[in-house]
Amino acid sequence: MEMMRLFLVHLTGFAHALEDIGESVELGEGLYVIKVEATRSKVYHAVKKRCAPKSLLVAQLDDVPKLMGFKPGATKALRLLAAVD
């Protein structure tokens, strides 16, 4: 069993949302933090297959990032996402 991890995902020109991949918080247009029990490679390929984006970045986060200027409520939602196991 893999451990829960946070990933920063940025994608453009995508056709579908990330709900099917894991719990997520949208920080801004095409910018998400998702929480899943998977490796970076598995997340990358799942997003690529499900969303068919024009561009894609997936990076694992070791901690909740500091935020400013994103969607209202994004910081609180991100902290809640990170706290729930």
Would you mind describing this structure in some detail?
By secondary structure, the chain is an alpha+beta fold. The chain has one domain (5-83). Helices cover 26% and strands 32% of the residues. The protein has two helices and four strands. It has helices at 40-51, 74-83; strands at residues 5-12, 23-28, 31-36, 55-61. Strands 2-3-1-4 form a four-stranded antiparallel beta sheet, sandwiched between helices. A hairpin with a 2-residue loop joins strand 2 (23-28) and strand 3. The model has no long low-confidence stretch (mean pLDDT 91).
Low-confidence stretches: none
In terms of DSSP E residues, the strand content is: 25-35%
Largest sheet: 4 strands, antiparallel
Shape: globular
**By helix and strand content, what is the structural category?**
alpha+beta
Side by side, the strands of the main sheet go 2-3-1-4
Number of DSSP strands? Answer: 4
Put simply, the count of helices is 2
Percent helix, as a range, is 25-40%
Radius of gyration: 12 Å
| Structural domain count | 1
Instruction: Calculate the mean pLDDT score and round it.
Output: 91
Distance between the termini: 14 Å
Q: Write the H/E string, N to C.
A: EEEHEH
